[in-house]
Design brief:
It is a single chain. β5 and β6 form a beta hairpin. The strands form 4 sheets. This protein has a 4-stranded mixed beta sheet. By secondary structure, it is α+β, with helices and mostly antiparallel strands. The protein has 25 helices and 11 strands. It is globular and about 95 Å long.
Length: 552
């Protein structure tokens, strides 16, 4: 069959252009279909809607973990869900698959457009937004602020804020009947950790515990619970198409007048106003040699940045973004984790008593050697305290899910084989480039294969009785995924643990925690981070009410 030659005039003809575009799209669709054949054999729950997939169901759940638990028990450690318009996605809780994604694949599983854009709206174009070489560049400059010796030097500041919190509570309890009172521990802990990050991060007195009218505290209050839950169908569908929009153009969606974009824009504006003057002041001090003895994180970051090759330095925008990241990650997450810790101790008074006795014994040792307060070594020697902390970080991960996207055609190895829709048992899953990989942190942290048959229970003794749990190591500490893993793991995880130790020891030594008489039901509300909400008072926002009394 003779085909006429294609000339330039043909190529400029709209009919030919349309035909050519259709052919390209057809080839792309066929390749995607063939590449996704193995993925479509993975079992998973039926989608409620062809248009919405599982997205609306997942984003409208009332409590973290309910869906993950149901699907984990039914389908195994990897299961298939549907994105909008019938696209396939994987939910992954398998340790070997997670190890491959986070440890062995470099930057080949980047964050997708939706995750990156929301991160940019909340913290700016910093380390949480960056990918690939930009991420490596920023992390290299930040590393000096998070060395073990540097973090140990922060302990006295952590302890000072913890003791100040304790004193505030004592003043309230002394004027209460029976020296006891119902306290929203979350709001107090958020104030305490904000004071900590202000002083440790920036050498600034935030005054949150002193009831100063703090714009940062006000900006962050209930930000996630107000902005993230229950997006409309139109919003969910609109976000599905963000993957096709270049990131510089996608940044303009922040000006859409919807509740989440308005709230994020307003909050980041407050943080940026707070940050700009501080960074300018610290940069001038470093360049003039006046800041040699400053040990706060921002001063160290400014020094490290000044010594870099100009081509690899952080821009002013990136510096401001790191500050927003410190403020959010340095106080919101630790306050939430410590609140869940006190909640579990209130539910398990016997273990709470063991912890208090241990703290009392170490306190006696500190006094005997003539010191006035605990050292990092003292805190690390508290077996019951550390076990309880690990257990709460396992049972109540504040970041309960992450999203990654396959940057190339790949094959995920599995530690726990799964059965396909055709009955075949497989120990690896081929996935095409672009596959959405939902990292089920909550499910992984409760896998019976790793943590035992009582994985859904609060049992700190598992950390005392077992030297190691799990055959495949995944997370940065204790095999947990709570701080993510690999190249993009939380850079401040040690900071968070030492801060939590310092606060927890102070509160357990001075106070006793019990569940209030009305026994409020606490929901693990999915609001970007896990927010504790009282089921009967959800309009009040995040709170953790506990009965607090002085130790007799």
């Amino acid at each position: 069959m003779f085909l006429p030659p294609v000339t330039m005039s043909h190529l400029l003809d709209p009919k030919w252009l349309l035909l050519l575009a259709g052919a390209v799209l057809l080839v792309h669709a066929v390749r995607r279909h063939l590449a996704g054949r193995a993925l479509r054999k993975i079992q998973g729950p039926p989608a409620p809607s062809w248009i919405m997939g599982h997205n609306e169901l997942v984003q409208h759940q009332m409590e973290v973990g309910v869906l993950q638990k149901e699907w984990l028990e039914k389908y195994g450690t990897v299961w298939r869900t549907k994105n909008c318009l019938n696209g396939d996605a994987l939910e992954i809780a398998d340790p070997k698959a997670l190890q491959y994604i986070f440890h062995k694949s470099g930057y080949h599983f980047p964050k997708p457009a939706v995750a990156r854009q929301f991160t940019r709206e909340i913290t700016g174009s910093g380390i949480l937004f960056a990918e690939g070489q930009d991420h490596a560049r920023i992390r290299k400059i930040m590393n000096p602020a998070f060395t073990a010796s540097q973090l140990k030097s922060f302990l006295p500041l952590f302890r000072h804020s913890a003791q100040k919190l304790g004193q505030k509570w004592k003043e309230q309890l002394h004027i209460s009947p029976d020296n006891a009172q119902r306290v929203d521990v979350l709001s107090w802990l958020a104030r305490c950790t904000l004071d900590v990050i202000g002083e440790v991060g920036f050498d600034v007195q935030c005054g949150a515990l002193d009831d100063s009218l703090n714009p940062v505290m006000h900006a962050y209050k209930n930000m996630f619970a107000d902005a993230i839950p229950f997006p409309s169908k139109a919003n969910v569908l609109f976000r599905h198409f963000w993957r096709y929009i270049p990131m510089p153009i996608l940044n303009y969606v922040k000006y859409i007048p919807s509740k989440e974009h308005i709230r994020f824009r307003k909050t980041l504006g407050v943080i940026n106003d707070f940050a700009q003057g501080l960074i300018r002041e610290k940069t001038e001090a470093v360049l003039s040699g006046k800041n040699e003895n400053k040990k706060d994180i921002m001063s160290i970051l400014v020094k490290a940045n000044a010594s870099e090759n100009p081509k690899s330095r952080l821009t002013d925008e990136e510096m401001i973004s790191q500050m927003a990241t410190f403020l959010l990650a340095g106080h919101e997450t630790t306050a939430n984790s410590t609140s869940w810790m006190l909640y579990e101790l209130a539910r398990h008074p016997g273990y709470q008593s063991k912890m208090r006795e241990e703290v009392k014994a170490i306190r006696a040792r500190v006094t005997e050697r003539g010191d006035s307060d605990f050292s990092v070594s003292d805190l690390d020697s508290m077996t019951y305290v550390l076990a309880a902390m690990k257990e709460v970080l396992r049972l109540h991960p504040i970041v309960y899910s992450l999203v990654r996207e396959a940057g190339r055609d790949d094959v995920l190895p599995l530690a726990n084989p799964v059965t396909t829709t055709t009955g075949e048992v497989i120990d690896e899953v081929p996935i095409p480039k672009g596959t959405t990989c939902n990292i089920a942190i909550w499910a992984y942290n409760r896998l019976p294969q790793i943590w035992g048959p009582d994985a859904d229970e609060f049992n700190p003794h598992r950390w005392i009785d077992n030297e190691k749990m799990g055959q495949t190591y995944v997370g940065v500490t204790s095999n947990l995924m709570t701080f993510s893993a690999g190249l993009q793991a939380c850079i401040g995880w040690r900071f968070s643990i030492i801060e939590m130790q310092a606060i927890l020891v102070e509160l357990i030594e001075q106070f006793e925690f019990t569940i209030p008489e009305d026994k409020p039901e606490i929901l693990r509300f999915p609001a970007g981070l896990v927010a504790p909400l009282v089921k009967s008072d959800m309009k009040a926002g995040a709170q953790m009410p506990l009965q607090v009394s002085l130790v007799q």
